[in-house]
Amino acid sequence: MDHQEDAPEPLLLRAPPDSAGLRLDRALAEVLPEGLSRSRLAALIRAGALSLGGETVSDPRAKVTPGADYLLLPPEPEAAEPEPEAIPLVVVHEDADLIVVDKPAGMVVHPAPGAERGTLVNALLHHCGESLSGVGGVRRPGIVHRIDKDTSGLLVAAKSDVAHQGLARLFAAHDLDREYLALCRGAPDRADPRLMGQPGLTLDPPWFRFESLIGRHRADRKKMAVTRGEGRRAVTRFRVEQAFARAALLRCRLETGRTHQIRVHLTHLGHPLLGDPVYGNAGGGGARPGRQMLHAARLGFRHPVTGESLDFTSEPPPDFRACFVEMNEP
After folding, report:
1. 102 is catalytic
2. Which residue in 10, 206, 218, 267 is deepest, having the highest Cβ count within 10 Å?
3. What is the pTM of this model?
4. What distance in Å separates the CA atoms of residue 47 and residue 29, rounded to the nearest whole number?
5. Of 102, 148, 161, 276, which one is the catalytic site residue?
6. Omega into 206 within 30° of 0, i.e. cis?
7. What are the residues whose beta carbons fall under 8 Å from the beta carbon of 41, sequence distance 6 or more?
8. How many CB atoms lie within 10 A of CB 325?
9. Which of 10-19, 183-192, 242-251, 268-277 has the lowest mean pLDDT?
10. For residues 266 and 278, is the Cβ–Cβ distance under 8 A?
């Protein structure tokens, strides 16, 4: 029986025009869809899954050709190992190709060592059955992007391979609208010379705009950090929605989507998220929230199959609102 019609479509990876002299895996990592890591890309290259002009490129250390269009053949979809679980989901939108959910804080997006059950993937497998896209691989069916375990809010997953690849292209090109609400320690103030003296911070009133490189922390490889010379470009816009005596409510917009980006950027600027035990202070600002106060409040994008403009919003959950009220008390 001929199964070629089920083979995954190649992914087009256009090398950044400013990538001259870089290793192939490092340069193409900049345009990878979320869900594929640089190490996974290098393994796929060594396995002969990458081509340029019809010729296989098998050395991830080879120099990239800036601006060139490489084709990456994703691995064949594997049967999902995670078991479906009847976990309640707040479904904001669902059609034949994708599903948008409002993830609660405390839920891991996809299985990982130590978190094999109770994940969003387990819930989606139960809710969607076999319709989830297999492009994400054995542990990440349907997953195009993720938000941290203790971040609440909106997330989109793919139910068809064509939607998965279309959404992956949107995320790789940063062609989406993503806004987060955050409660941070102190209030960013454009009159603060320490803040405004930070390299990479500019003003686009009423927004602050911070651009940096983000990479692994030198001393703690489980953490990310603002780096110099090595890392991936990260851009966050934020504005003060409301300032309190010891904290502030921020609205943050992502121009890129790096791991822990908002948490790392705000901590670097001296305004860590309330409740962030990794990058900030688990308390701070007088409040004692049980998690980092970050909520994915808005997600807007063009439907990868129908072309329809979609825009979704989510109100912060009770713990976020309670912390906000506490900060607002005299």
Report:
1. no
2. 267
3. 0.76
4. 17
5. 148
6. yes
7. 25, 28, 29, 32, 60, 72
8. 10
9. 10-19
10. no
